[in-house]
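ugh ok so i messed up the first submission bc i forgot one of the chains. this is the corrected input, ALL of the components this time, i swear. 673 residues overall. if the numbers dont match what u have on ur side tell me asap before i send this to the collaborators (the ones from the other lab, u know who)
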Amino acid sequence: MSFSNLQIHDIDLPNIETLVLKPISKSYFKIIALNKLAIYLGLFSLTFVIKFILVVKEDLEFNTSILATVLLIFCLVNFILSILAFKKQKYAIREQDVIYSKGLIVHTIITVPISRIQHVEESRSWLSQYLGLSTLKIFTAGEAGSDLNIKGLPHLEAKQIKQIISEKLNGRH
Amino acid sequence: MEDTNFSKPTRQSTKGIIVIFAFNTIKFVKRYAVLLLPFGVSLIQQKSFARITPLIMVLTLVCLVLVLLISAVLKYINFKFHLSQDDFYLASGIINKNVTVIPKSKIQNVYIKENFLQQLIQVVSLKIETAGDTISEIEINALDKPTALLLKKELYNKAHVQYEETIPKEKTEKHNVFFKVTAKRLLLEGLSQNHFKSFLLIILFIFGLYNEFKEFLEVLELEKQLNGFINLEKNDFLNHVITNVIIVIGVIFLSFLFSVVKTFIVNFNLEVVENSKAIEINKGLFNKLSLSLTPSRIQNLVITTNRVKQYLGLHSLAVKQAMSSAKQQRNFQIVALEKEQLSVLLSKLLPNYIREGNIEKPQPYFMLISALKIVVFSVLLNSLAVFLFGNVMLWINIIYMPLAILYVYYAYKKAYYIISQNFITVGSGVVDTVTNIIETHKIQGVILKQTVFQQRRNIASVVIITASKAVTIPYISKSKALFVYNFLLYKVESQKKDWM
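and heres the new structure output, hopefully the right one now
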């Protein structure tokens, strides 16, 4: 049995840190914003409903205004956070693997070697169709954590990436 | 059944009717027990129920049993399986005919199981597990043992040709019983288990029972308490302490008993058999189980022991194969191994495994996080205790605080990782000492994780994902994390080895 145990130097390895990741399409933020707005609208209308139903009791008047203010602050903070989080969503595709990074408070960089990919899916909602975007779903055999879900890719690019991965996967066999 | 190569559609053993019948009856009773209950009660009381006389009731019952029996027979008749060169075929269904085809290469595992009834009538069930959805699992309920073993061999044989063409087929089947557990060691194993879990479980159980019967108890003891109230007041505190101590001792005893009984039932007659291609595990008291481990399918290994067990020479080895459900993963455990046996078994399952390389520790930040966790937990525990029992319960902190400090200390002490050429070894645990071993080419993906707070301290965690488990190397310096990340990716991508 031949066994080698050469030391591998840090510099020789392809480095993830020096890699320039590509941000996802800016127009995807429109979808995020629309979704967020819908949620905020729902929350606000809920407070209004509460106010109108319970308007008979006068002491509750005060509470609803406080609730509305808190809600407003929450929505603003949430929106700012989602802008910042949006900027963290980046991706890259190398010869051997696909990389996706996301998360503001907990930042994660996920890398999946192409040889471990089971299949690739591209999906589009009607809104993303209108904006020319699509979501690329990459499935592995691993635990749920290693499946990639890259949202907000330009449609053409998603198609290309899918093409590249499928070709590599087929070439493997 | 004489058809040894399974090329023609075969039925299971005729005893299968009994097994299917029993399974169906149990299923039926479970589903309609609520409906049957008033029926049964009035039957026992010999009264008519909704103008139905007992005679009619008995007749309906007989009819029901007949229907179940007939359906069992039909199911048996329509249940046929056979093997072709590459696939396993199964035809089933009475009215809706189903044909399931499983390519042998997709078979993950073949189990042989025996429950109590099956042991009585001497048949076994054979379960075929595939990667992918749970629907594609197949169970043949009743085969006599030689046939089952033969079928299992047959299924494995061809399934492996595609993967392990290089391995020459050995005609001589060696059945080398490598390890057999003794009752004494099982007892020790049960006693030396981590009792915290069963302790908590039993406390919750007793608490639940107490709440259920609280009202009942109160009614009974109301008078007694009223009489003794004045006398008791002086000794109240002492009484309280004594009662608590008795309860705690009782619960500890129960949790020991619980662990020992559980260990015995699950691991009864545990046996590790080594034959030419795979390693087989047989075990179980009521549900006998037999399964094969093939090195190429193993995704990761977990070795667990603790202080007491180490002293007694008890180690357990959990083997995780791809895509098996949580329930089956527990069955993969081999307990009560001596240290030498463990290392021999390890070398069988993971040839070339060497625990070499630098032992790296997480940053001291690790202790901060576990301390934080403990603080949150103790605040919760204290508020719960005060809420339920009043300020008296705060004395528990005297015991609890040193334990908390020990927790933080040991959690850090036992955390380490080793990255070598082909293996990753990650240690963790607090009471238990847990060692995770992963082969680098079994990695499915790698995640680098960093919170906002860790960014300033230059700390990150690496999560290594395999098909059966995600293992985390927690809180190491960012430069080391990046090195591990890059290195592991390099290993996976440069080796070009299949993960299964």
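quick check: The mean pLDDT of chain A is 83. that seems consistent at least. The first strand of chain A starts at residue 22 and ends at 23.
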